[in-house]
Structure formats: C-alpha cells, structure tokens
Amino acid sequence: MTPTQKLEDYSQEQHDTWNFLYDRQKAHLQGKASQLYLDTLAEMSDTLTRTSIPMVADMASQLKKATGWSIEIVPGLIPPSEFFKLLSQKKFCTSTWVRRKDQVDYIEEPDMFHDTFGHIPPLMNADFGSFMHRFGQIGTALSNNGRAFQVTQLQRLYWFFVEFGFIREAGKAKLFGAGIMSSYGETTHAWESRNTSKVFNLAEVMSTPFQTDVIQNEYYILDSIPELERELNHWFERTI
Ligand SMILES: [Fe+2]
C-alpha cells in the first residue's frame, strides 16, 4: 500500500518543530548557500511551507507543473534499485515523518525536513533536474545488470554532490548538497571547510568511500552541473 500524508496526523508540536527547523536553517544559509538553492527555495515558498509541515501533494503539483518532476511518499530508506527507478521516472521520494523536538540538531535517518527542504527545491532548476533524471536512468541500467561496484560508484557521486557537494557560483564556493542544506551543524562545518575543499573530480569522487554516520571531512566543489552530466554519460558509455 502506498503511504499517504494527512494534515491531521501531525501535532502542533510537530508543526512548531518544523517551523523552528525551517527558520533557523534559512537564516543560517544566507550568504553561504548557492543562489541556485536559495532561489528555488523561495520559488517553492507557497507549497514548501514555513510555519506548518508542507503537504507533499501541494509541492508535487507545483513541481510537476514547472518541471515534470513529481514526489512519491516512501516509508523511509528504500533500496538503491527502487530509488534509481523513481528518479528515472522523474519522481523524487520523501518520508512524511518529522523528527522530534530533541532531535533538531541530529537524526540518524533522513526525515521529511531533510527529504523536502534539502532535496526538493533544486529540482526546480532545469540543469539539476536533468542531471538527476539521467542519474536515475544510468543507475537503473546498472542495477538491472547486477553491476554492484558501478552502483557503489554512483552512490559515491550522489553522496559527494547531491548530499554534500558545493557548487561554484561567480568564482565562489557555495553550499549545495541536501545533507548540508538540511543540517545546522553540517552547514557550519561545511562553510568552515570551504577553503580546503577540493575541485570536483568524477573519477576521484567515484573512488572515495563515504561514511553516513559521521560529520563530513571531505567536500568537493563542482563548477558545472551540465558538465557533470556529460562526464557521467561518458563514464556510463565506457562502463557498459
Ligand atoms: Fe538525502
């Protein structure tokens, strides 16, 4: 059964926690986050609401109209093959549970604040949407062919770009990845690391293992999303 989301399932305390997370993080990101992210967050302000937990159907309908992407509700983490398949159909997935008040600084598993505030806004950007779609198609092809090592390489790319990447804008390194956007501590830490972050290199990223349960100590700065999509295509052609 597909999970659903109902406004009445949330308590006022959960809405207040959401509002606290949203306001604190938006203020913290000013001057640090990429303009791409800040602009798309602002574009989504009618549906990715600030004072109450957003309704997935409203965000999905705005996104669909603007970009063709939609949003699927999932109970939590899903296997990589399912995740790739959704992306290949231009569907991003989100959970609908919101962390407790005592978890505002850290949660082990991604909640709805991470999945939506972190991941959804940049999908409004055509270059990022195109990259994610292609990423999903390539991931689907590789997992259907049992290419476990190449799937791991893709997961590393996702980690170091989509979750914890910087992008360069007007010559400056700016925060971009959803793992940074949705975390106060990661924002502070990543911003302090901006001068020691490396230039994004696909081969290097794909051979760098990552750990999900510690604060990041390696960040990469990407110069161009369309260029990354081209490089990913070349890698895929050489891989198959
Ligand atoms: Fe994520």
Structure description:
The protein has helices at 12-29, 35-43, 56-67, 80-88, 112-118, 126-144, 148-163, 178-181, 184-192, 202-206, 225-239, and strands spanning 70-73, 91-94, 166-169, 172-175, 198-199, 220-222. It is of the alpha/beta class. Helix content is 51%, strand content 9%. It has one domain (7-239): Aromatic amino acid hydroxylase (Phenylalanine Hydroxylase). Helix 4 links the parallel strand 1 and strand 2 (91-94). Strands 4-3-6-5 form a four-stranded mixed β-sheet. A two-stranded parallel sheet has the order 1-2.
Features:
alpha/beta, Phenylalanine Hydroxylase, four-stranded mixed β-sheet, two-stranded parallel ribbon, 6 strands, 51% helix, globular, binds fe (ii) ion
Summarize this entry quickly.
This protein is α/β, with parallel strands linked by helices and 240 residues long.
Please name the CATH architecture: Orthogonal Bundle
User: Helix/strand-derived class?
Assistant: alpha/beta
> For this structure, what is the CATH class?
Mainly Alpha
Q: How many extended strands?
A: 6
CATH topology (level 3) name: Phenylalanine Hydroxylase
Strand proportion, as a percent range, falls in: 5-15%
